[in-house]
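[Automated response] Your request has been received and processed.

Submitted sequence:
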Amino acid sequence: MSKRVLIIEDSKSVANTISLMIKEELGYHTTIGGSVKECAKLLLEFKGRFDVALLDLGLPDSNDGEIVDFVTKFNIPIVILTGSTLVEDKIKNKSKNIVDYVVKDGIYSFKYAISVIKRIINNEKAKVLLVDDSRTFLENTKELIERYRLTVFTATNGKEALNILKNNKDVKLILTDYYMPYMDGLELIRKVRKEYTKDELSIIVTSGVKDKNTASKFLKYGANDFLYKGFTSEELFVRINANIELLELFDELKNRANRDFLSKLFNRRYLFEYGNVLIKEAIHKNQKVFLALIDIDKFKSINDTYGHDIGDIVIKEVSDILQNHFNRGELVARLGGEEFCILFIDEDEKSIIDRLEILREEFQNKIFDIDKKKVNFTVSIGCSFKEDKDLDLMIKNSDELLYKAKEEGRNKVIYK
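Generated structure:
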């Protein structure tokens, strides 16, 4: 479901400019109003289902921030639009739902508003670990960070933090104090960096120690950033955003290298590079590894009948279905052309057979509506349960079974 942004701004030119930028740069839906009254009507019409609200403070029927009070009732993240650099603390702290404010002074400020909206929505999937032996600091900082819709875990020392990280390997950011009992921040960073690189997990140190060498010491040991305690909420948000955005940039670059441009699945290079790593790890853990090959039946006929553009869309449709069916930790890749590969780790044979059969039946029964054309096709699947220690051999064995499925009339799952 596409995200939706509520814009309440009495200047139509400003509202339309921001709305257009949101649609073009983020692809989100926007809904515009110019007063508290119109805002109320829109909130009721959409049942409060907005992901972010951009609210102008200078509305004709809102003299003292009433618009904020009203929108807060619907628990929507709020970004304030203001014409003045003097944003009163009473407005900034009027609601826990206020994430940030933007001073309207041209296109650059609107671009900043867009970046805040994107950050708020992307943060729904991001996790932060906050480590400090002061429970007051933990509670206050947790409340601030949660305004950005981040999921926050807390720990009072390094040992607790490592246990949380062990059970939540998708934590993207750690904010840690220096001096703590049992394990201090420096030792925590040493241990974290043995498992996670700087482009996988970011670490910000928050310390009250004013020694000039403290920051450089932490940065040398693997911290990404340093904040002296007493920081403002704006400074905290800016640092958190910068670090998470940098991680997302790293992820994007990795995806470009590791993903097939058409299907968005992992590509052949990544399959052979990372697949062999997974196989070695599984063997070490005494886990079984199996591999299936999937091929679109008579794909050349699809291209010849409907054209290569439709053929490309068929590849994308198949990829989407594969990702929906196999999302339990399997490695799903496009080998090339119309052939796909699934690497199963630590899963029993019967479960794999059942799931592959369900997949085959879905393609058999599905009619795709592509560019006003009705397209249907089947797939053939070969799956080897022979336990090999090399990806090349696993692919060779599954390919022989796939060839057999084609020989026997296609639209079959052959396994051995």
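Summary generated for your ticket: The longest helix spans residues 233-258. The two ends are 41 Å apart (CA to CA).
If you did not submit this request, please reply to this message.
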